[in-house]
Amino acid sequence: MNDDLRAFLDGAYDTHAASPQAIAEALAARAPTLPADDEGAEALRLAEHVLLGHLADADALQRLLAALPAGFRDAPGGACADAVGRVRWALARVGDAADLPPIGEPSRWRVLQNVLLAWIATGRGGDASRTLRESEPQAAGSPDTATRQAFAACANNLALHLREGPRGNAARDALMLDAATIARRAWQGAGTWMHVERADYQLARCHAVLGRGDEALAHARSCLAICEAEGADAAERFFAHEALWHAARAAGDADAAGRQRDRMQGLLAEVGDEALRTWCAQVLQDLPAH
């Protein structure tokens, strides 16, 4: 059973963004028999993300929670108790409950991403924006590094989700930029140089997707400068040049974009890890030639 669940989870991570409804239905079917162990907890966290973050279906998540085995749902501690607590808090937060169930940090910041995405999908982008802004000083003031990092990841993942989503909604676009900017500030206080340069990568990509070439170039150059100052490996520099490619395209500079493509091609052979090199090669192949 656990081997089958592990295989399902591994496949679901690759397909859930493209087929969230199918993954949600598969998770619902598994709910009554989920084991009260780490993989069962992982499955519930995935259900939280898919049903709230992708489908904004709080009712379906509530039904899935109720279908869990009693030993899972009422576990007194450990990974299952944490996953159930996250879901209960998220459902209460999405539904504007007057009293929220207790939740520890950093779990609150890890689940907040899915609450905000559910609000955005149901027309409550203003609530999502305000909550993200109001949460920043509280998370930044925590003495716990894991808590600060969880909030930084929440903001980054929110920006990524919005960047990969549909365009044409000014409020969503503004929230995307806010989230990416907040993520960079948060990583400066909670992470390493690599977190910060990847936050610059994210900001460059977010500005580029909106056609804001000057802003995209500034962040992409910062991303590459940090990589060079820190002696980053070929893969890290590859993606810095990818950010510069997108920024140059947004700025309307085809020649500069071509030079960035050449730099990416040159770095490809230097990427030592085979799986990572394959990923980089696919990224390069997917870039439009003109």
Taken as a percent bin, the fraction of beta residues is under 5%
What is the number of helices? 15
Structural class: mainly alpha
Low-confidence stretches: none
- Apparent shape: globular
Helical proportion, percent range: over 70%
State the distance separating the first and last CA atoms: 49 Å
The largest sheet, given as strand count, sense and whether it forms a barrel, is: none
Compute the number of strand runs.
0
**Taking all residues together, what is the mean pLDDT?**
95
Characterise this structure.
The structure is a single chain. This protein has helices spanning 2-15, 20-30, 38-54, 58-67, 70-73, 78-94, 107-121, 125-140, 145-163, 170-190, 193-209, 213-229, 234-250, 254-268, 274-286. It has a domain at 1-103. The protein has 290 residues and is mainly α. The longest helix is centred in the middle third of the chain and has 21 residues, at 170-190. Helix 3 packs parallel to helix 7 (107-121). It is built from 15 helices and no strands. It is globular, with a radius of gyration of 20 Å. Helix content is 77%, strand content 0%.
What's the structural blueprint in terms of helices and strands?
Blueprint lengths: L1 H14 L4 H11 L7 H17 L3 H10 L2 H4 L4 H17 L12 H15 L3 H16 L4 H19 L6 H21 L2 H17 L3 H17 L4 H17 L3 H15 L5 H13 L4
